């Protein structure tokens, strides 16, 4: 199976020492922006649609006629934010996740029980899954025993904005929260 997206872990990691505050914006083109890394609305909606097609693979509640629960959609957006924070922090050290690292992660998926599901996922969703599985190990390798503190510092220093249609960034909890 595809490893569960560590949304809770990422949120807890970011929440440990964050200061309070939130940033929202209304944009017709981006669901979120983190330090210049943008998640276009169409890409976010495609990720949500792909996850909704195989909820058991992503260990989320089944999606019914009312659509994906807001908490699930915000958790997925929160995972994207965590990925972007790690990408930005790694870039500041001149580190990237290599194509070879992504290939190793993909090969592990293809060798497992999720191979059939993997074949049905969109390229954007595959990229999101690979980011979610490769960034944390790269971050830990780059920052070593200080990885936790480095992630918290990177999150505090990041400019994180969320389109108000999808929620708001809550820097206290390190999560995408429902818009008040």
TrEMBL record:
| PROSITE patterns per record | PROKAR_LIPOPROTEIN
Put simply, this protein is called Unannotated protein
What organism, scientifically named, is this protein from?
freshwater metagenome
């Amino acid at each position: 199976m595809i490893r569960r997206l560590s949304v809770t872990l990422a949120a807890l990691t970011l929440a440990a020492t964050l200061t309070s505050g939130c940033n929202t914006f209304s944009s017709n083109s981006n669901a979120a922006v983190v330090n210049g890394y943008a998640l276009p609305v169409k890409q976010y909606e495609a990720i949500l649609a792909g996850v909704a097609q195989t909820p058991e693979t992503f260990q989320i509640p089944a999606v019914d006629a009312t659509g994906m629960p807001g908490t699930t959609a915000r958790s997925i957006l929160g995972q994207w934010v965590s990925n972007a924070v790690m990408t930005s922090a790694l870039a500041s050290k001149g580190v990237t996740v290599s194509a070879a690292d992504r290939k190793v992660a993909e090969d592990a998926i293809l060798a497992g029980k999720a191979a059939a599901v993997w074949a049905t996922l969109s390229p954007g969703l595959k990229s999101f899954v690979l980011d979610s599985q490769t960034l944390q190990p790269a971050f830990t390798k780059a920052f070593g025993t200080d990885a936790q503190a480095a992630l918290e510092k990177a999150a505090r220093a990041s400019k994180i904005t969320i389109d108000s249609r999808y929620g708001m960034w809550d820097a206290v909890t390190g999560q995408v929260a429902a818009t008040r």
